[in-house]
């Protein structure tokens, strides 16, 4: 264990040295890293949407037997508590993805301003547009799941979720 601790300390020192020396990596590297982070977030969000769909389908399909009697299933019993939690986590991730898009838009705007002073400026809006389109697509999928699960969410949680959805979409459109 002591050897591992010594090696870990050495490697952390080397990592700090490399990061200090190469902190001015090419801009394309940082953009690529940011793009990968955003895409990973969207994939995680898509996975959450599929989990919500599966949980809703499982709760509806396993909740009653052929004769109409209720079955005792751990999935059916856990669904009312898990579904709101899953949806809240998904909305939180959606808001984080929106913040990433807005940050990227702000960077683009700043680069456009600096271009007036002679700085290099990449005018290609296709990656930014694709980000917005992907985010809006995921937004509508999640919104659809929330509306389909409105009866399970209750009268208190649903209006708060819809307000958060409106804030995400209006923030994206306004910027």
Structural account:
It holds the Pfam family STAT_alpha. This protein has a domain at 27-52 and 82-174: Glutathione S-transferase Yfyf (Class Pi), Chain A, domain 2. It contains five helices and no strands. It has helices at 2-21, 27-62, 74-115, 126-148, 150-174. The radius of gyration is 23 Å and the shape is flat. The model is unreliable at 63-79 (pLDDT under 50).
Order of helices and strands: HHHHH
Which CATH class of the domain at 27-52 and 82-174 applies here? Mainly Alpha
Relevant CATH superfamily of the domain at 27-52 and 82-174: STAT transcription factor, all-alpha domain
Radius of gyration over all CA atoms, rounded: 23 Å
Strand content: under 5%
Percent range of helical residues: over 70%
Largest sheet: none
In round numbers, the mean pLDDT is 81
Number of distinct beta strands: 0
First-to-last CA distance: 52 Å
* Derived structural class: mainly alpha
Q: Are there runs of 5+ residues with pLDDT below 50, and where?
A: 63-79
In the CATH scheme, what's the topology name of the domain at 27-52 and 82-174? Glutathione S-transferase Yfyf (Class Pi), Chain A, domain 2
Number of distinct helices:
5
Quaternary state reads single chain
Shape: flat
Per CATH, the architecture of the domain at 27-52 and 82-174 is Up-down Bundle
């Amino acid at each position: 264990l002591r050897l591992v601790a010594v090696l870990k300390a050495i490697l952390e020192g080397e990592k700090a040295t490399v990061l200090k020396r190469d902190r001015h990596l090419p801009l394309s590297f940082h953009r690529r890293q940011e793009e990968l982070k955003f895409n990973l977030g969207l994939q995680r969000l898509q996975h959450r949407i599929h989990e919500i769909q599966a949980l809703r389908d499982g709760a509806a399909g396993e909740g009653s037997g052929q004769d109409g009697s209720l079955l005792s299933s751990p999935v059916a019993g856990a669904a009312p508590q898990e579904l709101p939690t899953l949806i809240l986590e998904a909305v939180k991730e959606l808001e984080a993805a929106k913040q990433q898009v807005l940050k990227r838009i702000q960077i683009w705007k700043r680069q456009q301003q600096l271009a007036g002073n002679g700085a290099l400026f990449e005018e290609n809006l296709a990656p930014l547009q694709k980000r917005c389109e992907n985010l809006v697509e995921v937004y509508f999928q999640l919104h659809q799941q929330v509306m389909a699960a409105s009866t399970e969410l209750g009268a208190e949680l649903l209006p708060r979720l819809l307000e958060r959805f409106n804030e995400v979409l209006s923030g994206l459109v306004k910027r």
